[in-house]
Structures are given as structure tokens and as C-alpha cells.
Write a structure and sequence with these properties.
The chain is about 0% helix and about 45% strand. By secondary structure, it is an all-beta fold.
């Protein structure tokens, strides 16, 4: 009998199993934003979903275009001198996750590509879903 092979990124491995979010309440969302001069990028570099049990799941893109999902807490922001700065903090209303605060995660769905690994993650709530995907190497969040 052959064991089922879990799809994974060749560089980053399988990462966190997003199924661990199912049944948990989203209580906080943090994001990292790249600022160039006085203007923030449209989409965040990273997001962290923090649940009612204090667990934090980090979602970002890998250098190979995969979608990285890993257990990790938000880090501090940092300055990149002439290339701007990265600020980390609560999302406010700047991502689709903000409207889902206080809701339970009902389901998750992942998409994989053979050479890259995970390329998308949908997180389903009673009021809708949030899709996280790697788009041309950038993290994109949509409803």
C-alpha cells in the first residue's frame, strides 16, 4: 500500500496545515506593508491570522512563487534605507480579513502546482471567503 504524498513546496516544505484554523475564531490580523517614500504598497507583504487560542499563522510568498503558510508571530518593522521601510501592525480595514474579525473559520481550501507547491489558500467564514494567493511573486488577498 502506497502512502499519500502531501503536496509541498520544494524549497519551503509543506508548511503549516491550514486545517488547524478550522473551528477557531479569528480575533486579530496583523500585516507587513512596504512603504516607499510616504506611500504604502497596495497589498501587504505578509499577514498573520491570530485565533482565539493565541495561535498565529503567517501567510506570505516564497522566493519561488509559492504561498508560504507557517506558524509564526508578527515581527517588528524595519528600515531598508533607500528602499523604504516595512511597517507591521494591525490591519485596520486594509485587507478582506478585517471584515471577518470575530468569525469562526468554517473551512479552508488549498491549491497546488507541481513545481511550486501551494499557490493559493481560501479561508471560509459564514459571511464569505478570503483568498490568499501568490500573484507574480506578490501576496494577493481577495474576497
Amino acid at each position: 500500500m502506497e502512502s499519500e504524498k502531501v503536496p509541498q513546496c520544494p524549497l519551503h516544505g509543506p508548511g503549516e496545515r491550514p486545517e488547524t484554523l478550522v473551528g477557531r475564531r479569528l480575533v486579530s490580523v496583523f500585516a507587513a506593508w512596504h512603504w516607499s517614500a510616504d506611500e504604502a504598497a497596495e497589498d501587504p507583504l505578509d499577514v498573520w491570522l491570530i485565533d482565539d487560542q493565541g495561535s498565529s499563522v503567517h501567510i506570505t510568498t516564497g522566493s519561488d512563487g509559492c504561498l508560504v503558510v507557517e506558524p509564526s508571530s508578527p515581527h517588528e518593522g524595519y528600515d531598508m534605507d533607500g528602499w523604504g521601510r516595512v511597517e507591521v501592525g494591525p490591519v485596520g480595514d486594509r485587507t478582506p480579513f478585517a471584515a471577518r474579525l470575530g468569525e469562526d473559520v468554517l473551512a479552508v481550501r488549498e491549491e497546488f502546482e507541481p513545481k511550486t507547491g501551494r499557490i493559493a489558500l481560501e479561508v471560509v467564514f459564514a459571511t464569505g471567503r478570503v483568498r490568499c494567493d501568490s500573484w507574480a511573486g506578490d501576496l494577493r488577498l481577495t474576497e
